[in-house]
Design brief:
The protein is elongated. Strands 1-2 form a two-stranded antiparallel ribbon. Helix 2 packs antiparallel against helix 3. The N and C termini lie far apart (54 Å). The chain is mainly alpha-helical and 139 residues long. It has one domain. The chain has three helices and two strands, in the order βααβα.
Length: 139
């Protein structure tokens, strides 16, 4: 383990792919986040209303799957794919840009907030079984 600063500034970029912003990807993220929120609502309301376990489980499963799809599509299309290596002892033959020189992809607040909201609704849905644990012990 090195005692030097491991900030990654000495890394050399071997290849990079900067994803293009597409409206189709944003639509998939929004749709999947909405489905995830709906799945959390179905789970929570179904649990409190005493619906069948098939409906409750389907709501939870579809919600978690949709949340995973939304998160993956958001991350893959928002962050550059960079392959970098540490400097080698011998001098490099070709000048390569430093990793700090790679432009970042701008983020969209709406998509991030929508995914966070879907995760929050899923979390609230998963908290509903706590109500069925019975009365709290103590006075």
């Amino acid at each position: 383990m090195s005692t030097e600063d491991d900030s990654g500034e000495d890394l050399r970029v071997v290849s990079q792919r900067i994803p293009a912003e597409t409206e189709a990807n944003d639509t998939v993220v929004v749709g999947a986040a909405l489905v995830a929120g709906l799945g959390g609502v179905v789970f929570g309301v179904g649990w409190l209303a005493g619906w069948s376990l098939g409906v409750i489980g389907t709501g939870a499963g579809v919600g978690l799957l949709a949340l995973g799809v939304a998160l993956r599509r958001y991350v893959v299309e928002r962050f550059p794919d960079v392959e970098a290596v540490e400097p080698r002892p011998e001098a490099d033959r070709f000048e390569q840009p430093r990793i700090a020189d790679v432009p970042t992809v701008p983020r969209r607040r709406l998509l991030g907030r929508l995914i966070s909201g879907a995760a929050g609704v899923m979390g609230l849905g998963f908290l509903t079984p706590v109500v069925s644990l019975g009365p709290s012990p103590g006075p």
